[in-house]
Design brief:
The protein has 131 residues and is α/β, with parallel strands linked by helices. It is built from six helices and five strands. A five-stranded parallel β-sheet has the order 1-5-4-2-3.
């Protein structure tokens, strides 16, 4: 007797490897972002794409506030074309990071989404900075 987990069957391992490798090209997580920041290995610009009020209430250390509706060529002009942006929003219930990532990609900028957003960050036990 099979379960709803095993129906449908798992993908063939090489297909699964391709799928999960592709996910990592698009996403990062709170732990990896925190590790990069705390170890002095931050090789990306961290964008909080929520509104200014929420950013002021608490944001990730070193994050720059650039609400997703304001992402455009002009607001990105200070950054070299090969700058990697990592975007986040409130959390899994919010698609602001997806909207921001789409805009950045459309503007031909390297981008990854930090899954979990602020909710995930706090769930990991990390703290927020306040303005």
């Amino acid at each position: 007797m099979s379960s709803v987990v095993s129906r449908p069957p798992a993908a063939e391992p090489s297909r699964a490897a391709s799928h999960f490798a592709a996910l990592l090209a698009f996403e990062t997580d709170c732990w990896d972002v925190n590790h990069a920041i705390t170890q002095g290995r931050q090789d990306f610009v961290l964008l909080d794409v929520r509104g200014e009020a929420l950013y002021g209430e608490g944001h990730l250390p070193g994050a720059i506030n650039l609400p997703h509706p304001r992402i455009n060529e002009a607001t990105l002009a200070p950054y070299p074309a090969d700058t990697l942006f990592v975007v986040y929003c409130a959390g899994p219930h919010c698609n602001g990071a997806d909207k921001a990532a789409l805009k950045l990609a459309t503007l031909r900028r390297p981008v990854k989404k930090m899954i979990g957003g602020v909710t995930g960050w706090l769930d990991e036990g990390f703290s927020l900075n306040k303005v």
